[in-house]
Amino acid sequence: MSVLCGRCRCGMAADQRPLNEVVFLTVAEVATVMRVSKMTVYRLVHSGHLPAIRVGRSFRVPEQAVQDYLRESFVGVESA
């Protein structure tokens, strides 16, 4: 099931965990974890690559979504 979050439809499954067990991160916290700028996180959220929920004018990103994104984005180096 996809979740509509603001401007985009994200692929985050709504029934993975009970909401009281989900840890949500702010955009600034995600930027710190990923070691990128907050603008990069906003771009990932708006493009739908990083699922988030909108709380007022702010976004909250599930911690698991950040871990999943980083795991899927990992580039391995093959030895020749």
Automatic annotation (TrEMBL):
It comes from the Bacteria. Coiled coil: none annotated. Transmembrane segments: none annotated. InterPro entries: DNA-bd_dom_put_sf (IPR009061), HTH_17 (IPR041657), SinI_DNA-bd (IPR010093). Residues 24-72 form the Helix-turn-helix domain. SUPFAM superfamilies: Putative DNA-binding domain. GO terms for molecular function: DNA binding. This is Helix-turn-helix domain-containing protein. It comes from Streptomyces inhibens.
